[in-house]
Amino acid sequence: xxxxxxxxxxxxxxxxxxxxxxxxxxxxxxxxxxxxxxxxxxxxxxxxxxxxxxxxxxxxxxxxxxxxxxxxxxxxxxxxxxxxxxxxxxxxxxxxxxxxxxxxxxxxxxxxxxxxxxxxxxxxxxxxxxxxxxxxxxxxxxxxxxxxxxxxxxxxxxxxxxxxxxxxxxxxxxxxxxxxxxxxxxxxxxxxxxxxxxxxxxxxxxxxxxxxxxxxxxxxxxxxxxxxxxxxxxxxxxxxxxxxxxxxxxxxxxxxxxxxxxxxxxxxxxxxxxxxxxxxxxxxxxxxxxxxxxxxxxxxxxxxxxxxxxxxxxx
Length: 315
What we know:
75% of the residues lie in helices and 3% in strands. It is an all-alpha fold. Strands 2-1-3 form a 3-stranded mixed beta sheet. The chain is built from 10 helices and 3 strands; from the N terminus they run βααβαααβααααα.
């Protein structure tokens, strides 16, 4: 929106994160729940990563990407939840302008990387099931590293573009962010200057960063489904589909909440709903991913069990 005549033009140097709840009793409950969720998420994802590193059977492209996804999940929840826990513990909800931009940058960097990693995992399943004879050459160690490096380059550019574009906006009050972390839709509502170009940029880059990967994932799984249905044995079809089920579950959860969050700009009434979506994006999804990938995966379960048995034997 355009600044009105007589508006105080003093630049905002800090924001106030309103958080999830207001009452002190509920803040204690939220602190315990989110601390538990944080510890479970970090422990679960690091366990998956440890299993992939120590188990030779898991040194495959699929688990290489899964290990990277586990690191991203730890980073994503670490960018948002510890700040909120600190605010709940100290009862101070302010965050400096610079810290807010830093949180925004790393959140979009890691979330964008999730988009590309999930796409790379879908491409890996496509090659493994539809092109098994050339799989080892098309998904070599060099190709894996190139895919990850290209993904980091794209997501870094996306996150930096949004952060720099945000610095062009004027913030002169109010300074209350109706969320528990800094994100673009909520900051747009506080700007004293027009956010039309920023919203257009967010929509366009979101379409590229999320839309293109979705198309590639859908295309990959159309080919995968067609190839699996041609397998004659029911056991073979079941095994092929089981390797894709966990990945598809994570894709639906990640993209479903992401689309809900960023395709509804400009609605102040949406902010309270966005808090729930934000919890799902930054806490629930990273916490569920280790469970989704391990519950139906006997190789991961076996590796985790051997790690636990090894620790017990050492003690």
